[in-house]
Amino acid sequence: MRKTNIIRNEKLKGLHGWYPGRRECTAERLLANPYNGCAHDCLGCYAGALPGEGFRRHNADGSVTAWVNFPVVVAYELDRLDYACALYISPVADPLQPVEKELGLTEATIRVATERGLPVDVVTKAVPSPAILDLLAQNRHSLLQFSIPTANETLRQRLMRGGAMVTQLEEGIRRAVDLGIYTVVRIDPIYPYLTDDPVRLSHIIAMARDSGARHIIASVLDLPLRIVGRIYSRLVAGWGADMVARYRSLYTTRIGGYLHAQEDYRREEFTLVREMATTAGMTFALCMEFGQDDSGKPVGLNREFATTINCEGQATPIYRRKGAGFVPAADCDGACLTCTDARCGIDELALGKRGVPAKGIQLADWRRWSRRDHPLLKL
Questions:
Q1: How many CB atoms are closer than 10 A to CB 298?
Q2: Do residues 166 and 125 touch, judged by C-beta distance below 8 A?
Q3: Between 198-211 and 263-279, two packed helices, what is the crossing angle to 10 degrees?
Q4: What is the per-residue pLDDT across 111-129, written as a single tens digit (0 to 9) for each?
């Protein structure tokens, strides 16, 4: 595996809300990205297509930017809030990639949240350290998502140049489950003609079930237009020109800056995986999957295919301040996207009746809801 250049950036970077635009994520999250760029170098990785200083550098030379003051900034931001939600670490770069062993920014960020009583949602292709697992186990709403595109180790290594071996990931799931951590397996993404075979999919479902995972999330690979040529080049190098021809024939749907596989193909895959998960006694949801209506407008598919209220399978409520930390604001399912009765007390989070704001829920909104005259503060 090639050596990754690590850029230690001392600029002050902290939390932010959901990205503007399309959204299928039901629960609110404060997004935490201590690293920009990822050394795992997965086929189809969209990090190189994202905006921002760190991602531009990653796209240019594969560097990973580490925001070295990130945990300190997060602590400062959380201490200014009276309302918060789970921290999502990380939607854009693996938080447990090799640089984490050197710098420990993810563990420090998880510790900041845990010490304040907030849950954390970790997504990774690596195996968390015992210290991170112990921190996640301290909050019943924390969860751990393992992204595993295939249970075939030889194929996994062809799809990504880093990440943990399948057997290591399997053991990581078992350790998390033994500690009582809600654990998810993400078949995310499914690679057409490479990992979409029903037998291959059944193997990963069986592995997830036997390891104790409770929920499956799936998506089909999307191709960012900015880097689609690079992805096709890797497909040629790994599987030949015929594979690229098959991809060009399949990826004919454009939504925003991405090419999507034809909707009929995706529906067939999602139906298959949902049936397998249900038969295995597991719940199922999609991640950011959209079709189009007759006018070409994107239409989310998750409500049609999901067997749970929340994409992650677990109810994670909004939190409010109590003393120096946070406690659940209400006993709710946390599905703000479909909520019509904001028991948390923040009516703007009842997105089911108000509609998703164009810019999504942002850190500035959490600050605004923390005004001292908010009625919840009298509880």
A1: 16
A2: no
A3: 40
A4: 999 999 999 999 999 999 9
